[in-house]
Amino acid sequence: RPRAMGAAPVCQSCGRPALGPDATGEESASLRDAADVPEGETPPEKRRAGQAVASDARRWVLPPGGRLTVMMFGMTGAGKSSLGNLMADAPVFEAADDTASVTNLDSVMRYEAPTGSLVVLDTIGLGDTEIDQDKVVASIRDVALSAPRGIDVLLFVMRHARITDDAIARLIYVTEYLWGKECLLNLYIVVTHASRFVVRPDEAEAWIERQAEMNWRFRHIYGLVGNNPNRFIFVDNPDPQSEEPNIEGRQAASRDALMKVLALHPRDVVPPFTHAMMKSAATKTEQEIRELEVRTKEENDLGREDSSEDPKEEVGRADADVSGPKRHKKAAKTPKAQQTEVDKTVANLREKRAQARRRREEAEQALRKKLEEVKASAEFQEEAASSAREATMRFAKTYETLAEPGKTPQGGTVNPVAACKRMVGGLTQAFGRRLRSSTASTSSKQESPYVEPAPSAQPMDDVQSLQDMDIHVDNILATLRKTLKGSCRECFERYSGAAATLSPIGFQLFLAEVDPPIKGVSAGHLWRRGDKNCDGQLDFKEFQALFGGPSSSSHGSKKAPSGSDRT
Length: 567
Known about the structure:
11 strands; 20 helices; 8% strand; two-stranded antiparallel sheet
C-alpha cells in the first residue's frame, strides 16, 4: 500500500530502503579529482563542500540528506508521471503503482529518495481538465503538509505541442494567485516529448525565441522565467514498452539534462518559496521537524546502512591513518588478532548505524502522526479553504471585469481573458453568489482588455505584477551601482577569492555587507538577473553586466548565452 507521508521508500520484502536516483555508488564531489570535471564546469575545490556536481561527464548527483524539494504541475497528459519517474530513476509514479515508494494523498503524490537527496511532489489535482474549488483546497492543503519547509524547484510541465488557452489560464491562476509571484524565482519550464531538442541546445534556443515572437501564450510562459531560455528543460518521454529505437539512451540524455538543472539550482541564494499554508504547517509541526532533522543528520554523519561503501573499507582506512611513534608503541598483533579487532569495530559501526536508522524512523513516524493530526484538524482545513477562496476571489476580480478580447483574422485568441473567465466560472460555483456580488460592485466592464496593474516601486513583499518585480530589482541595482566599494573587478575578487567564479554563498556575503543588506527574495531576483546561463555561478562578465552597466529589465530583454551553456 502507499506509505504514510514523510516515510522514505522501503522494500516490502526486507524493509530496507529501496533503490533510488542517488543510490548509484558513484563518488561524491569531495572525492572526485579535478581532472574528471566536465569541460566548462567548476572544479570541486572551487565549490562549497557537499554541493551537487557531475560525477562524470554524463551523470549528475544530488547530495545525500539535502532534500531538494521539487513540485511538478501542469495539465493532465503533459507527462508529469513520466517526468517524476525520470527523476526517481524508477517507475514510482505509475497510475497503477501499488508500492511503498510513493505517498498518495488526496491531491498530491509524494516521492522521497532513499538517501534523502530529493523529494518530488506531483500535484495531480491541479492538472485535471475540470478543476473546482474543492480540488484547489485539497491541493493547497496537501502541498503544505508535504513540504512544510517550502518548495525549492517548481516545474511547469508542458508537451511539445500546441499550447491551449486553458493551460495558460491554469498557469496564471497557480503561479500568480494560488502560490503567489514569489514562486516564479523557483520556476523552470519542462517541455516533454521533445527528443529533437534534448541533444540540440542551439536549435532548442532558436525554437524558444521563435515561439516567443509568434505566440502570445508562449510569450507569457517565457516572461515568467525572465525570458531566459536556460530555464527551459527539454526531455524525451519514450514508452519503455513501445519498442522505439534507443529508448535507454534517450532516457539517459533526458535525465542528465533534468538532473543537471536540479544539481545547479542555486539554493544558497534563491530561497524556497513558502506559502502561508506551508508556514502554518511548519509552525504546527516544528518540534517533530526539528527532531527528524537532528536524527537524519546523525544517520548521515555515521553513514547510512545502505551506503555503497563497505564498513570494513572505512575501518581499514582509519587503521592505515595511524602511523609514526604512536603505531610503534603497540605490540605487534598476529593477523588473526588484527582481523578480530577489525570485525569488532565493523560490528560496532554497523550497530551504531542501525540505532541511528531506528531513531530516524521513529522521528519520521512521529512527524507523520503529527501531520495527520494537523490535516484532520478543523482549524487547518478552514485555513486551507480560506486561503484558496481568497486566491480565487482575487483571480475572479481581475478577470471578471475585463472585456472579452477580439479574435485574430484566423479566428484565434489574443490573450487569456476568455479562458480565465471560463476558469472563474468553474472555481466559483461553490461560493459564486457571494463572489459575484462582490465583483459586481467594483466597476463596470473595462473597454481595454488584459491590462496589468500600473507599475510602482514598492517592497518585494507587496509586489503585485511582473512589472513591479522588474522595477523593484532595477531600483536595487541603481542604488548598488552608486555605493559599490571599489570597482566591479575589486568587488568580484573580494568575494570570489582565487576562484574564477562567484558562488551563491559569496554573492550572499557581498549583498549582506551593502547598506542596507539585501537578502531573501530580493537577493534571489538579483541572482536570477545575473546568472544568465543558470550554471549556479557568476563569472566576472555576468557580475560586471549586473553591477557595472545600465539596468536591463529581465522581462522583455533577450538573453543570448552560448549553445554550450544551455541546459
